[in-house]
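Appendix B. Chain record.
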Amino acid sequence: MHYVTILVIRTCMVQYLENYKKNIAIDMRKKGMSYSEIENRIHVPKSTLSFWLKKIKLTEDQEKKLNKKKFEALKKGSKKKIARTLQTIKEIKIASAKDIKEITKKELWLMGIMLYWRERFLSGNESDLRKGVKFTSSDPYLIKFFLKWLQNIGRIDKEEIVFDIFINKGQQRVIGETIGYWSDVTDFPEDKFNKIYYLKSKPKRKRGGRKTAGNIRFGLLRIRVKASSMLARQMYGWVRGIIRYYWD
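Structure tokens predicted for this chain:
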């Protein structure tokens, strides 16, 4: 009998506690609180709350407030997710940058060939490649790299290098700023940039989503090497050697 009495008392206490929590949950729901808010207060699973509160109807004003809270919670969660993603990307970039240590002369040589291949062979005009070395880009880092390649690998003197600027015709008023920009990028004096070509047409989207210089603030810079037919032929041969190695 003693055991049965204890069991009955425990059952009654459990039922009392459950009813107590249920009444509190109902009262909180009637006040317009969300399931998440109620769950955090009385520590009852949402599945149980859903069963208890399915008949409780909220006013239109309460529904609006709950929807606003949900939106704010989603917005806050989205911001946190974006922040975590950006931090992860930043950490990956820092770690990846450390992978690049010393670049050997052979690696520099190959990098320059591949860059020139991508730039010049896309045109499909192989005869143009034999006429001289030309490289065009709006990216200051690629411009810096190719100049370094010309001087260190191609053994081209600075006096042999000339530049052409291609810029939208509507940007004539900022040509002085443009020349100064490319002079700083290349470490060449401003008088080296006296050949300016103005683009009349509006920027057109190229294959792969790229655009022409019309929408680029400082336009495109073309590097040309005087009397460079020999170097151009060498580069043509190097590219053909790479093709033959991998595909022939």
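Further analysis of this model is presented in Appendix C.
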